[in-house]
Specification:
Helix content: 40-55%
Number of helices: 7
Strand content: 5-15%
Distance between the termini: 51 Å
Order of helices and strands: HEHEEHEHEHEHH
Oligomer: single chain
Strand order of the largest sheet: 2-3-1-4-5-6
Largest sheet: 6 strands, parallel
Structural class: alpha/beta
Shape: globular
Radius of gyration: 19 Å
Length: 202
């Protein structure tokens, strides 16, 4: 059985490895509980849509140039793991972190933003009641946040951060945006051309 100390040792060992940044995860996805996964899955979907690959072994990177990893990290139940994750983020090669948490005390995103600074953190309030907690940061301790449940947008924002240095990601973002625009155009044409009844029956 894996313990919290085992995970902390893993993170610290990876931080000390001085790995080539091209082989380390570019984006970290963390959440306070696996019960947050149904909401956070859309972040995985967005990164997959952009050609990222999931990296499950730090020492064996996928063939894809851009990758992401994920962990469950509870600000309240495993604060020492949260600190280790934030403190090792830079040395482990992460460029941006997506952090999701639910409940009224959704502290994981903003605490991680404070610990991992200056690595940017994009907070995802898993529930509507989590919004105030996620965005409630004082001046000088920034966090970027999306609306409740919008982890897909959080992943797009993470990709936008990376796109400032990587033309390939910028091109993928533009292509994805164009595909989404085309989808709206198709729906609009169908609604007009088929009429409401035909549109419902299509």
């Amino acid at each position: 059985m894996t313990t919290v100390d085992d995970l902390i040792d893993r993170l610290e060992s990876e931080a000390a490895a001085d790995a080539d940044p091209e082989t380390t995860p570019d984006v970290g996805i963390i959440m306070g509980s696996d019960s947050d996964l149904p909401v956070m899955e859309e972040a995985y979907d967005a990164l997959d849509d952009l050609g990222f690959a999931e990296q499950t072994d730090f020492d064996e990177a996928p063939d894809a140039r851009f990758t992401y990893e994920s962990y469950v990290v509870s600000a309240h139940r495993t604060p020492e793991l949260m600190y280790a994750y934030g403190e090792t983020a830079t040395e482990r090669g992460l460029d941006v972190i997506i952090a999701g948490a639910g409940g009224k005390s959704a502290d994981l995103p903003n605490m991680t933003a404070s610990i991992a600074y200056p690595v940017p953190v994009i907070g995802v309030p898993v529930q509507e009641k989590s919004v105030d907690s996620v965005i409630g940061m004082p001046t000088g301790a920034p966090i970027v946040a999306v609306d409740a449940g919008k982890s897909y947008n959080a992943a797009l924002s993470a990709a936008q951060v990376l796109a400032r240095e990587h033309d390939e990601i910028e091109e993928r973002l533009v292509e994805l945006h164009d595909e989404q625009k085309a989808g709206v155009a198709d729906v609009s044409a169908d609604l007009h051309d088929l009429g409401i009844d035909g549109f419902r029956d299509r």
